[in-house]
Each structure stands twice: as C-alpha cells, then as structure tokens.
Specification:
Blueprint (H helix, E strand, L loop, with lengths): L8 H10 L6 H6 L3 H36 L3 H26 L4 H25 L6 H10 L4 H31 L4
Helix pairs in contact: 3-4, 4-5, 5-7
Length: 182
C-alpha cells in the first residue's frame, strides 16, 4: 500500500478549487503530514530488519537446543513464543517497508508483548527456588567455592538484571515503533 497516490497537478488544482480550498497544489502537498511519516517508516523498517534477523538467530538457537535442554513445558513455551515474535517481526518489517499505517501499532504490540514476556519470565525465575542437581550441589559444598545462599542471590540478581536490560530494550523498541504514528 503506497502512502501517497500520485495526482496530476492540474487535477489536484481542480479538486482543491471545487472543495473551496484557498490552497494551491504546492501548499496542499506541503501541508501533508504523510511526507514526514514516510521518513519515520523508513527508519523503523531498518530497525525492524535488524530486529527480525536477531530474532531469527535466537529462535533458531531455541529450536536447535530444545532437544538437548528437554521437552518440558517451560522450554516449549519459550520456543513457541520466540517463533511467534519472530513471525510478527517479519510482518512489522514488511508493513513499515510498504508504508502500511498498521505498522506502528503491530510493531508496538509485538515488542511490548515480548518485553512483558521477558520480564514475567525473569521475575518468575528470579523468585522461584533455584536448585542445582544434587551432585553439583555436593561439589560446591565440598569445595567451599561459593556459599549456596550466595549462589541463589547471584542467580536472582542475574535474572533481575536481564529483566531490566532485555525487557527495557524491547519496550524501548516498542515505543520507537509506536512513535511513527501520525
């Protein structure tokens, strides 16, 4: 869908005159907000292209590693979520490239949901009980390498850091997409 439809100058002048507008065709074209929106869409398309390729890599790694990590419900939800976000990011890129007015809304919704999912998962992981396998826990206790309580706190801080960094950056991208609305 093209954002602007080409109209011959003389036909545009006739239409403006018939509508009672005092503007010349040049003044009318200069007053259109879509000209600025096109520039915003171009930069958002570039950002969506980078985002979609990063998501393809992460989703592919997720699909490849599921057999090694196990087919439990948590891993499957993560992989399905990554594939879904990647699919919609391809659409967001195409919409921005085509100048579709739905692009900012779809891009915002996709990235905001992704950011929310990251934050929810990280909060869940940070405040759920972290347990290493028994043999690893025995090795840590025997070697006095690190106190198990400190290890739990480090895991919690790690997940909270990821929640802020990854969730915040994805929400920032969502707001960037949203700012292209006219």
């Amino acid at each position: 869908m093209k954002p602007l439809i080409p109209v011959p100058r003389d036909r545009l002048a006739e239409l403006l005159q018939a509508s009672g507008s005092p503007l010349t065709p040049e003044q009318y074209v200069a007053s259109l907000p879509e000209m600025q929106t096109n520039k915003k869409y171009e930069s958002r398309a570039w950002a969506a292209a980078i985002s979609k390729y990063c998501l393809v890599v992460v989703a592919a790694l997720g699909v490849i590693t599921v057999p090694f990590l196990g087919f439990d419900i948590e891993n499957l939800i993560i992989v399905v979520g990554l594939v879904t976000v990647t699919y919609f990011e391809f659409r967001v890129h195409r919409y921005f490239r085509e100048g579709n007015p739905e692009a900012p809304t779809l891009g915002y919704r996709n990235q905001a949901c992704f950011a929310a999912a990251i934050v929810i998962y990280c909060l869940y992981s940070a405040f759920s009980t972290f347990q290493l396998p028994a043999e690893d826990m025995n090795l840590i206790e025997q070697s006095n390498f690190i106190d198990p309580g400190v290890l739990n706190n480090l895991v919690r801080v790690f997940y909270l850091f990821i929640a802020v960094l990854a969730g915040g950056s994805q929400y920032g991208l969502a707001m960037y997409y949203r700012s292209a609305r006219s």
